Amino acid sequence: MKVLLTRRLPSAVVSRLHAAAELTLYEGPVPISPEEMKRLLPGMHGLISVTFDPLPADVIDAGRDLKVIANIAAGYENIDVAAAKARGIVVTNTPDVVTESTAELTWGLILTLTRRIAEGDRLVRRGAWKGWAMDFMLGMSLQDKQLGIIGAGRIGRSVARRAPAFGMRAVFAARGPGEPGPTLSLDELLVSSDVVSIHAPATPETKHLINRRTLARMKRTAFLISVGRGSIVDEEALAWAMKEHLIAGAAMDVYEREPLVHPDLMTMENVVMAPHLGSATREVRIAMSDLAVSNALAVLEGRSPLTPV
């Protein structure tokens, strides 16, 4: 069996693959391109990819012997799942292992933004701090505030479970039956929440869900947290809303055109930017890699995958 890895994985995880398959590791200086993927896929039985590897139908067609695409991510919008299914290729992801670390990062961003921690760090480092003052760098308390969550999946629910520890009331945007906890319409959530946190998947329906119209509905004192998928927030609209002081600030871990960020957002003190760190702990990245390898080996050995899409 031949397996293509598009990223270097922890050695302890790769050793499991070595015993069962012949490995090809892409080690280019930039993320693998569709053209390079097409060149490497012929003859491969398994592909272990990440969420930024483009796998449209024409790329998948190049892998005529592929049996499994194991994505190291909770999402799988980089893969044309329908095209893979039509060719009999199993697609898997790593959904559960990223939940708690991403929820932790969300709260880190909420606290950093509302209490102006990153802004204060920059101020101290450039020697501009002149000492304590009663009205200096005032932020917003979380106690008795409303946290509006867009996306009631595993991560959104995990974020909500932590809200009482900060004295916040969590509500979800109602997008269908069976939503957990208190729910409001999206518009009601936007106009009433003090912090709006995004944890929805990338779908045609959620593309630019946060746009000029929805940003204008938010409180002028509210904060936006973007930890879902970059395509959900229209960054040009966000930059406009920030310039017009329609919201108080934003914190982002995902972007429309990663690793590029809208240039206007880069200059704003009340925008906190993290480089896609939601799952970035040693424990979680190892667990993600291990689960992807387990999925790939299960399919290649004729067994059912652990987490099929």
In words, what does this structure look like?
The chain is α/β, with parallel strands linked by helices and 309 residues long. The chain has two domains: 2-93 and 281-300, 3-Layer(aba) Sandwich (Rossmann fold); 98-273, NAD(P)-binding Rossmann-like Domain (Rossmann fold, 3-Layer(aba) Sandwich). Helices cover 34% and strands 16% of the residues. It contains twelve helices and twelve strands. The protein has a seven-stranded parallel sheet. The protein has a five-stranded parallel sheet with strand order 2-1-3-4-5. Strand 3, helix 3 (57-62) and strand 4 (68-72) form a beta-alpha-beta unit. Helix 1 (11-18) packs parallel to helix 12 (282-300). The longest helix is centred in the C-terminal third of the chain and has 19 residues, at 282-300. 39% of the residues are buried.
Short overview:
This protein is of the alpha/beta class. The protein has twelve helices and twelve strands. The strands form two sheets. Strands 8-7-6-9-10-11-12 form a seven-stranded parallel beta sheet. Strands 2-1-3-4-5 form a five-stranded parallel beta sheet.
Total domains: 2
CATH topology of the largest domain: Rossmann fold
Number of DSSP strand runs: 12
Q: Which strand order spans the largest sheet, edge to edge or round the barrel?
A: 8-7-6-9-10-11-12
Amino- and carboxy-terminal Cα gap: 22 Å
